[in-house]
Specification:
Number of domains: 2
Strand content: 25-35%
Distance between the termini: 19 Å
Largest sheet: 5 strands, antiparallel
Number of strands: 20
Order of helices and strands: HEEEEEEEEEEEEEEEEEEEEH
Protein backbone atom coordinates (compact mmCIF):
# COMPACT_ATOMS: atom_id res chain seq x y z
CA UNK A 1 0.00 0.00 0.00
CA UNK A 2 2.89 2.39 0.70
CA UNK A 3 4.14 1.69 -2.81
CA UNK A 4 0.68 2.46 -4.19
CA UNK A 5 0.56 5.73 -2.26
CA UNK A 6 3.90 6.80 -3.73
CA UNK A 7 2.95 5.82 -7.28
CA UNK A 8 -0.36 7.67 -7.07
CA UNK A 9 1.35 10.73 -5.59
CA UNK A 10 3.84 10.88 -8.48
CA UNK A 11 0.91 10.53 -10.87
CA UNK A 12 -0.90 13.48 -9.30
CA UNK A 13 2.25 15.61 -9.44
CA UNK A 14 2.88 14.72 -13.10
CA UNK A 15 -0.71 15.49 -14.09
CA UNK A 16 -0.49 18.83 -12.27
CA UNK A 17 2.47 19.73 -14.48
CA UNK A 18 0.47 18.60 -17.53
CA UNK A 19 -2.40 20.88 -16.49
CA UNK A 20 0.03 23.78 -15.93
CA UNK A 21 1.52 23.39 -19.41
CA UNK A 22 -1.86 22.96 -21.10
CA UNK A 23 -3.23 26.03 -19.31
CA UNK A 24 -0.27 28.06 -20.55
CA UNK A 25 -0.93 26.87 -24.11
CA UNK A 26 -4.55 28.00 -23.85
CA UNK A 27 -3.53 31.32 -22.31
CA UNK A 28 -1.33 32.01 -25.35
CA UNK A 29 -3.82 30.94 -28.02
CA UNK A 30 -3.80 34.51 -29.42
CA UNK A 31 -0.08 35.22 -28.90
CA UNK A 32 1.66 35.98 -32.20
CA UNK A 33 4.22 33.33 -33.10
CA UNK A 34 3.64 31.31 -29.91
CA UNK A 35 4.64 27.64 -30.10
CA UNK A 36 2.71 25.16 -28.02
CA UNK A 37 4.43 22.97 -25.44
CA UNK A 38 4.07 19.20 -25.13
CA UNK A 39 4.73 17.23 -21.93
CA UNK A 40 6.66 13.96 -22.16
CA UNK A 41 6.37 11.39 -19.37
CA UNK A 42 8.58 8.50 -18.24
CA UNK A 43 7.90 5.67 -15.83
CA UNK A 44 10.08 5.50 -12.72
CA UNK A 45 12.33 2.62 -11.66
CA UNK A 46 10.88 -0.82 -10.98
CA UNK A 47 11.13 -3.03 -7.94
CA UNK A 48 12.04 -6.43 -9.35
CA UNK A 49 10.76 -9.24 -7.16
CA UNK A 50 11.58 -11.90 -9.74
CA UNK A 51 13.54 -11.14 -12.89
CA UNK A 52 12.32 -12.47 -16.26
CA UNK A 53 14.25 -15.62 -17.14
CA UNK A 54 14.97 -16.52 -13.53
CA UNK A 55 15.27 -20.26 -13.04
CA UNK A 56 12.21 -21.91 -11.53
CA UNK A 57 13.69 -25.42 -11.66
CA UNK A 58 16.70 -27.15 -13.15
CA UNK A 59 14.96 -27.30 -16.54
CA UNK A 60 12.62 -24.27 -16.55
CA UNK A 61 12.72 -20.51 -16.15
CA UNK A 62 10.15 -17.77 -15.52
CA UNK A 63 8.85 -16.37 -18.83
CA UNK A 64 7.91 -12.94 -17.43
CA UNK A 65 8.94 -12.34 -13.83
CA UNK A 66 7.47 -9.88 -11.32
CA UNK A 67 8.28 -6.19 -11.82
CA UNK A 68 6.33 -3.49 -9.95
CA UNK A 69 6.70 0.14 -10.97
CA UNK A 70 6.73 2.97 -8.44
CA UNK A 71 5.28 5.82 -10.45
CA UNK A 72 5.80 8.35 -13.20
CA UNK A 73 7.80 11.53 -13.78
CA UNK A 74 7.82 14.41 -16.25
CA UNK A 75 10.76 13.68 -18.54
CA UNK A 76 10.64 16.95 -20.50
CA UNK A 77 8.52 19.73 -21.87
CA UNK A 78 9.02 20.25 -25.59
CA UNK A 79 8.19 23.16 -27.87
CA UNK A 80 6.54 22.15 -31.13
CA UNK A 81 7.66 24.44 -33.95
CA UNK A 82 5.02 23.65 -36.53
CA UNK A 83 3.96 26.73 -38.48
CA UNK A 84 0.82 28.52 -37.29
CA UNK A 85 -1.79 29.93 -39.62
CA UNK A 86 -1.17 33.29 -41.24
CA UNK A 87 -3.56 36.16 -40.76
CA UNK A 88 -3.44 39.27 -42.97
CA UNK A 89 -3.02 42.59 -41.19
CA UNK A 90 -2.51 45.08 -44.02
CA UNK A 91 0.40 46.56 -42.04
CA UNK A 92 3.60 46.81 -44.08
CA UNK A 93 5.70 46.43 -40.91
CA UNK A 94 4.18 43.02 -40.09
CA UNK A 95 5.94 39.98 -41.50
CA UNK A 96 5.66 36.20 -41.07
CA UNK A 97 8.08 33.38 -41.84
CA UNK A 98 6.67 30.69 -44.11
CA UNK A 99 8.73 27.69 -43.06
CA UNK A 100 11.88 27.39 -40.96
CA UNK A 101 13.64 30.34 -39.38
CA UNK A 102 13.64 32.97 -36.65
CA UNK A 103 13.96 36.72 -36.72
CA UNK A 104 16.98 38.06 -34.83
CA UNK A 105 16.51 40.65 -32.09
CA UNK A 106 19.32 42.62 -30.41
CA UNK A 107 18.71 42.43 -26.65
CA UNK A 108 19.77 45.14 -24.17
CA UNK A 109 22.62 43.00 -22.77
CA UNK A 110 24.15 42.65 -26.24
CA UNK A 111 23.04 39.08 -26.88
CA UNK A 112 20.83 38.06 -29.77
CA UNK A 113 17.33 36.71 -29.19
CA UNK A 114 15.28 34.77 -31.71
CA UNK A 115 11.57 35.09 -32.37
CA UNK A 116 8.78 34.08 -34.72
CA UNK A 117 6.88 37.26 -33.82
CA UNK A 118 7.15 39.59 -36.80
CA UNK A 119 4.97 42.42 -35.43
CA UNK A 120 7.59 45.12 -35.95
CA UNK A 121 7.47 48.87 -35.39
CA UNK A 122 9.54 51.96 -36.13
CA UNK A 123 11.14 53.90 -33.30
CA UNK A 124 11.75 57.65 -33.23
CA UNK A 125 14.87 57.19 -35.40
CA UNK A 126 13.11 55.13 -38.05
CA UNK A 127 14.79 51.94 -36.83
CA UNK A 128 12.92 48.64 -37.16
CA UNK A 129 12.22 47.30 -33.65
CA UNK A 130 10.01 44.75 -31.90
CA UNK A 131 7.17 45.54 -29.48
CA UNK A 132 9.66 46.10 -26.62
CA UNK A 133 11.76 48.52 -28.67
CA UNK A 134 14.62 46.06 -29.22
CA UNK A 135 16.18 46.54 -32.68
CA UNK A 136 15.96 43.92 -35.39
CA UNK A 137 19.28 42.38 -36.41
CA UNK A 138 20.74 43.24 -38.91
CA UNK A 139 19.88 46.85 -38.29
CA UNK A 140 17.35 48.40 -40.68
CA UNK A 141 16.59 52.12 -40.59
CA UNK A 142 13.94 53.72 -42.77
CA UNK A 143 14.60 57.21 -44.11
CA UNK A 144 12.38 60.01 -42.81
CA UNK A 145 11.18 60.79 -46.32
CA UNK A 146 9.94 57.22 -46.94
CA UNK A 147 6.31 57.15 -48.06
CA UNK A 148 5.74 53.41 -48.33
CA UNK A 149 7.60 50.27 -47.34
CA UNK A 150 7.69 46.70 -48.65
CA UNK A 151 9.30 43.53 -47.30
CA UNK A 152 9.93 40.95 -50.03
CA UNK A 153 9.84 37.20 -49.58
CA UNK A 154 13.65 37.24 -49.79
CA UNK A 155 13.87 39.69 -46.90
CA UNK A 156 14.81 42.72 -49.00
CA UNK A 157 13.31 45.89 -47.49
CA UNK A 158 12.46 48.64 -49.98
CA UNK A 159 10.84 52.03 -49.59
CA UNK A 160 9.24 54.55 -51.92
CA UNK A 161 10.71 58.05 -51.66
CA UNK A 162 9.44 61.23 -53.25
CA UNK A 163 11.47 62.14 -56.30
CA UNK A 164 12.57 58.55 -56.93
CA UNK A 165 10.97 56.67 -59.81
CA UNK A 166 11.88 53.24 -58.42
CA UNK A 167 11.78 51.90 -54.84
CA UNK A 168 15.15 51.96 -53.11
CA UNK A 169 16.58 49.17 -50.96
CA UNK A 170 17.25 50.15 -47.34
CA UNK A 171 18.09 46.80 -45.79
CA UNK A 172 18.04 43.01 -45.84
CA UNK A 173 16.25 40.93 -43.21
CA UNK A 174 18.07 37.72 -42.36
CA UNK A 175 16.75 34.75 -40.42
CA UNK A 176 18.36 32.07 -38.29
CA UNK A 177 17.77 28.33 -38.12
CA UNK A 178 18.87 25.76 -35.55
CA UNK A 179 19.62 22.07 -35.87
CA UNK A 180 17.47 21.47 -32.77
CA UNK A 181 14.99 24.33 -32.26
CA UNK A 182 13.29 22.37 -29.46
CA UNK A 183 16.46 22.95 -27.45
CA UNK A 184 16.09 26.74 -27.49
CA UNK A 185 15.64 28.46 -24.12
CA UNK A 186 12.29 30.27 -23.83
CA UNK A 187 13.03 33.71 -22.40
CA UNK A 188 9.50 35.14 -22.46
CA UNK A 189 8.36 38.12 -24.50
CA UNK A 190 8.21 35.83 -27.56
CA UNK A 191 12.01 35.53 -27.39
CA UNK A 192 14.15 32.39 -27.50
CA UNK A 193 17.83 32.15 -26.61
CA UNK A 194 20.51 29.87 -27.98
CA UNK A 195 21.51 26.99 -25.71
CA UNK A 196 23.95 24.12 -25.81
CA UNK A 197 21.10 21.81 -26.82
CA UNK A 198 19.90 23.97 -29.72
CA UNK A 199 23.29 24.27 -31.37
CA UNK A 200 24.62 27.51 -32.87
CA UNK A 201 22.43 29.54 -35.24
CA UNK A 202 22.83 29.28 -38.99
CA UNK A 203 22.20 32.69 -40.55
CA UNK A 204 20.91 33.16 -44.08
CA UNK A 205 18.61 35.06 -46.39
CA UNK A 206 14.93 34.08 -46.46
CA UNK A 207 13.75 31.89 -49.36
CA UNK A 208 17.31 30.61 -49.94
CA UNK A 209 18.97 27.29 -49.05
CA UNK A 210 16.04 25.93 -47.05
CA UNK A 211 15.25 29.12 -45.16
CA UNK A 212 11.56 30.00 -45.03
CA UNK A 213 10.29 32.81 -47.23
CA UNK A 214 8.83 35.96 -45.70
CA UNK A 215 5.28 37.21 -46.17
CA UNK A 216 4.90 40.91 -45.62
CA UNK A 217 1.58 42.19 -44.30
CA UNK A 218 0.93 38.93 -42.41
CA UNK A 219 1.45 37.66 -38.86
CA UNK A 220 1.82 34.05 -37.76
CA UNK A 221 -0.82 32.96 -35.25
CA UNK A 222 -0.05 30.57 -32.40
CA UNK A 223 0.00 26.91 -33.43
CA UNK A 224 -2.27 26.07 -30.48
CA UNK A 225 -5.50 24.21 -31.29
CA UNK A 226 -7.95 25.27 -28.59
CA UNK A 227 -10.18 22.19 -28.90
CA UNK A 228 -7.20 19.85 -28.67
CA UNK A 229 -5.88 21.64 -25.60
CA UNK A 230 -9.30 21.51 -23.94
CA UNK A 231 -9.36 17.74 -24.48
CA UNK A 232 -5.85 17.50 -23.00
CA UNK A 233 -7.03 19.53 -20.01
CA UNK A 234 -10.00 17.21 -19.40
CA UNK A 235 -7.78 14.13 -19.81
CA UNK A 236 -5.25 15.46 -17.31
CA UNK A 237 -8.01 16.37 -14.84
CA UNK A 238 -9.50 12.88 -15.02
CA UNK A 239 -6.08 11.25 -14.63
CA UNK A 240 -5.48 13.42 -11.56
CA UNK A 241 -8.82 12.27 -10.12
CA UNK A 242 -8.00 8.59 -10.79
CA UNK A 243 -4.69 8.94 -8.95
CA UNK A 244 -6.42 10.66 -6.02
CA UNK A 245 -8.82 7.70 -5.89
CA UNK A 246 -5.82 5.37 -5.69
CA UNK A 247 -4.50 7.41 -2.76
CA UNK A 248 -7.87 7.12 -1.00
CA UNK A 249 -8.06 3.36 -1.65
CA UNK A 250 -4.55 2.80 -0.30
CA UNK A 251 -5.31 4.93 2.74
CA UNK A 252 -8.47 2.93 3.43
CA UNK A 253 -6.58 -0.36 3.18
CA UNK A 254 -3.86 0.89 5.54
CA UNK A 255 -6.54 2.04 8.00
CA UNK A 256 -8.16 -1.38 7.98
CA UNK A 257 -4.81 -3.10 8.51
CA UNK A 258 -4.08 -0.77 11.42
CA UNK A 259 -7.36 -1.73 13.08
CA UNK A 260 -6.61 -5.48 13.05
CA UNK A 261 -6.15 -7.01 16.46
Amino acid sequence: MLRALHSAATGMEAQQTYIDVTSNNLANVNTTGYKKVRVNFQDLIYQIQRAPGQATSQQTEAPTGIQVGIGVKVASTQKEFSTGTFRPTGNALDVAIEGDGFFQIQLPDGTVGYTRDGAFHMDENGQLVNADGFPVEPNITLPAEAKAMHIGEDGVVTVVVDGQAEPIQVGQLQTATFINPAGLLAEGGNIFLESGASGPPVIGNPAENGFGALRGGFLEAANVKAVEEMINLITAQRAFEFNSKAVQASDQMLREIGQLR
